[in-house]
Design brief:
It contains 20 helices and 19 strands. The longest helix is centred in the last third of the chain and has 41 residues. Helix content is about 40%, strand content about 15%. By secondary structure, the protein is α/β, with parallel strands linked by helices. The N terminus is likely disordered. It comes from Streptomonospora salina. GO terms for molecular function: DNA binding; N-methyltransferase activity.
């Protein structure tokens, strides 16, 4: 596409849905229902593309929300003006333009002349007086890179939370050098930099990726050296030893150089077979870390028990190099990747090799850090993943099967012990839930107007009366990088503590205890902020409601907003955009004393819901354990006395 074509930002149906807070079917419905909906300006009949300014104007005229900040507009121009397969190359040149670097020596060819208007748009946006506060160069470039990763990179790309856990486990910190020999666009280097590590070194097969990684660091004011090329065949950092090595190597690569590297000195733990390229990367990482230094690698789950890699795994374990194998979070799907933590032996006499820590059922990357901190006594890590320190002798007996779940079976409870424990827990949980259920009856006639009859005031009307303040994060506020804690939409949905990181931006909204935080999409319950949330910045796609507690009880408001969000999901309700506006929620006007009583009952109902969910989990586990034990003869009904 020519530079002239690239002057105009265009949107696909998915982009329009995202920027207006609706789902794709709603966009298709708009096209059918409204004769004045913008006509496509590019694309095809099956994938039409619309001019951003036309869609924005139409949304404004029809009262539809439309949120596209400076970075979004630049990205859409890039999408329109650059072939998808060359997006990384363009972003590399955009990074060099923003960071004041040069392509010479990077292995990157000069920029396409047709990209000149787009590169000027990138640098102009970062330097514009209108947008400099909300989108300075580092934040602009991070946003562009994040969109590229989300839309163009391979499925299963490394999650930022896992990257942060890997950097923490590796001990990355001020004064430590960190190497990533397969750095991609710099996710792991970025995580190490957030821990204070300096200097940083990275290498990638794709010159554009290596340049992007370096530019991200340079724009953040950090020292970073990158090289391009295959680190196994052409190591750009040969002869150097980092304090820590982080790596997310290519999976299932049989063409890693098995034959040509057959006698390589890096194979201190044995020649990796052709189908064990990941074990070649593990040994490369160990060869590039100082003695006593740490290596943290994301590995495919299959590498833990493939027969072809048994000899190398045995050597790593016997030498005391392998310290932990943990399942990585994968939602409800079976784990497809593991985290391997290794220490390079320093030559000191240590006696028998240390046990290998294994962990299954990891649901949150932060659990990995906690497990590592308690590696000598995994039982002290508290509730969470099933962890065990497995002796080397046990691993040798099971043919070096490093999969976390099988490795823990030797020390697991018997079926009888498990069933007795689960039965006791279930009976106790039943009693606890019964005690939580509040007694409720019909509301008095003077209840202040029900929400359903339309007489109760809305949150917006309460705000107009000064009883509630409404706040949202300023445009351009991010949650993926920076020194400040950010409460994110994901945290609200998961019931987790603030996990985002953001920069200081004008108009930043700081969460206080007693604030009510509601999601603008996703139908998750509102949160009454507590001490763990205090001081965090409000993230995107959230709304904060701050009550005058003498007029509106925060707990009551949180319960009413949560109920309204849940009602949107009831069967039989009209299909809608997927967007939720807390300002439109009606709040029955009752005296504040009654509000507090209702808030207490709502709190007990929330506890009841959580208790019932716990009961469902326990019941499922108990039924599965009991049924399996009866079927295989491990359990039997007690004989009547």
């Amino acid at each position: 596409m020519s530079g002239r074509d690239g002057e105009r930002a265009v949107l696909g149906a998915g982009d329009i849905a995202r920027l207006t807070g609706v789902r794709r079917p709603a966009v298709s419905n708009w096209r059918r229902r409204y004769a004045d909906f913008p006509r496509p300006v590019a694309g095809s009949s099956t994938n039409p593309r619309f001019a951003l300014e036309d869609v924005e104007r139409w949304c404004r005229d029809h009262g539809k929300p439309f949120e596209a900040d400076a970075a979004e507009r630049v990205w859409q121009r890039v999408q329109a003006g650059v072939d998808g397969v060359r997006t990384a190359e363009f972003l590399a040149h955009a990074g060099l333009a923003l960071a004041g670097g040069a392509a010479a020596g990077s292995g990157l060819a000069g920029p396409d002349p047709g990209w000149a208007p787009l590169l000027a748009a990138v640098t102009g946006t970062a330097g514009s007086a209108e947008t400099a506060e909300s989108c300075p160069a580092p934040q602009l470039y991070e946003r562009l890179c994040a969109r590229f990763t989300a839309e163009r990179e391979r499925a299963g790309a490394l999650d930022a939370g896992v990257a942060a856990a890997m950097a923490a486990i590796a001990g990355a910190g001020p004064g430590s050098t960190v190497l990533d020999p397969a750095c991609g666009t710099g996710t792991l280097l970025h995580a190490a930099a957030a821990c204070g590590a300096q200097p940083l070194h990275g290498q990638d097969l794709d010159p554009a990726h290596a340049v992007i990684a370096r530019c991200r660091m340079l724009l953040a004011g950090l020292s970073c050296e990158t090289a391009s090329g295959d680190a196994l065949r052409a190591d750009g950092f040969a002869g150097r030893a980092a304090d820590a090595v982080l790596c997310d190597p290519p999976f299932r690569d049989r063409d890693w150089g098995c034959a040509e590297l057959a006698e390589d000195a890096r194979w201190a733990y044995g020649q990796p077979p052709r189908g064990e390229g990941e074990l070649a990367w593990v040994q490369h990482c160990l060869a590039r870390v100082r003695p006593g230094g740490r290596v943290v690698v994301r590995m495919p789950a299959a590498a833990a028990d493939r027969p072809s890699g048994r000899r190398v795994r045995a050597a790593l374990v016997s030498a005391g190099a392998l310290r932990m194998v943990a399942e990585l979070p994968g939602g409800d799907a079976p784990p497809t990747a593991h985290l391997w933590v290794l220490d390079r032996p320093d030559g000191a006499e240590r006696g028998a090799a240390a046990p290998v820590l294994t962990a299954a059922g990891v649901r949150d990357a932060r659990e990995l850090v906690r497990l590592w901190q308690h590696r000598d006594r995994p039982e002290a890590a508290g509730e969470g993943p099933a962890a065990a320190a497995v002796p080397v002798s046990d691993l040798l007996e099971c043919d070096m099967d490093l999969r976390p779940a099988p490795a823990q079976e030797a020390g697991a409870e018997t079926a009888g012990e498990t069933y007795v424990r689960l039965r006791s827990e279930l009976i106790a949980a039943l009693g606890a839930v019964a005690d939580l259920v509040p007694e409720l009856g019909p509301a008095p006639e003077d209840g202040g107007g029900a929400a359903e009859d339309g007489t109760a005031p809305t949150v917006a009307e309460l705000a107009a009366a000064g009883a509630v303040e409404i706040h949202q994060a300023p445009l351009g506020a991010g949650a993926d990088r920076g020194p400040l804690a950010v409460l994110t939409h994901r945290d609200l949905r998961a019931g987790a503590a603030p996990s985002g990181r953001g920069e200081e931006v004008p108009g930043r909204v700081v969460v206080r205890p007693g604030d009510v935080v509601a999601a603008l999409a996703g139908r998750c319950p509102a949160r009454l902020a507590g001490g763990a949330d205090a001081g965090a910045a409000l993230g995107p796609r959230l709304m904060l409601l701050r009550c005058d507690a003498e007029r509106v009880d925060p707990g009551y408001l949180a319960g009413v907003v949560s109920a309204a969000a849940a009602a949107e999901k009831r069967p039989g309700r009209r299909a809608h955009s997927g967007r939720f506006d807390p300002r439109a929620v009606r709040v029955p006007a009752v005296p504040v004393e009654r509000q507090r009583a209702r808030a207490a009952a709502m709190d007990r109902l929330a506890g009841t819901r959580a208790g019932l969910a716990r009961l469902a989990d326990l019941g499922e586990h108990l039924a599965r354990t009991g049924g399996g034990g009866l079927a295989d003869g491990a359990l039997a009904p007690e004989e009547p006395t």
